């Protein structure tokens, strides 16, 4: 089965953006990990307080697409909409 992996960085440009990440990250992580098909989901701070490391793994394209759709209409999606994302998405074979 082909899994979908997203990795990269969430790059804040202001302290208000980092505040938004900090405020909404716990619920976003909880909801994401509870989604059907979510195998792994991490958003971690780095040594730079404006940059967060992102790592996601979903069981397939359908689960990944459902996650992306949920995020777009979520509080997290609204609160972090202006934050730069540098992501790489790839298919991973078992």
What does it look like?
- Residues 17-70 form the ABM domain.
- Pfam families: ABM.
- It comes from Glutamicibacter uratoxydans (Arthrobacter uratoxydans).
- This protein has a four-stranded antiparallel β-sheet, covered by helices on one side.
- The model has no long low-confidence stretch (mean pLDDT 97).
- A hairpin with a 5-residue loop joins strand 2 and strand 3.
- It starts with a strand and ends with a strand.
- The protein has helices at 15-34, 61-72, 75-79; strands at 2-11, 38-45, 51-58, 84-93.
- By secondary structure, the protein is an alpha+beta fold.
- The protein has a single domain (2-93), classed as 2-Layer Sandwich (Alpha-Beta Plaits), CATH 3.30.70.
- The longest helix is centred in the N-terminal third of the chain and has 20 residues, at 15-34.
- It contains three helices and four strands; from the N terminus they run βαββααβ.
Topology record:
Elements: E1 2-11, H1 15-34, E2 38-45, E3 51-58, H2 61-72, H3 75-79, E4 84-93
Antiparallel strand pairs: 1-3, 1-4, 2-3
Question: DSSP strand (E) fraction?
Answer: 35-45%
Using only C-alpha atoms, the radius of gyration works out to 13 Å
Task: Output the CATH topology.
Answer: Alpha-Beta Plaits
- Unreliable stretches (pLDDT < 50, length at least 5) are none
Q: How many separate helices?
A: 3
Element-by-element helix/strand order: EHEEHHE
Major sheet summary line: 4 strands, antiparallel
Strand order of the largest sheet: 2-3-1-4
Number of domains: 1
Average pLDDT works out at 97
Keywords: Monooxygenase, Oxidoreductase
Domain ABM: 17-70
Pfam family, one: ABM
Protein name: Antibiotic biosynthesis monooxygenase
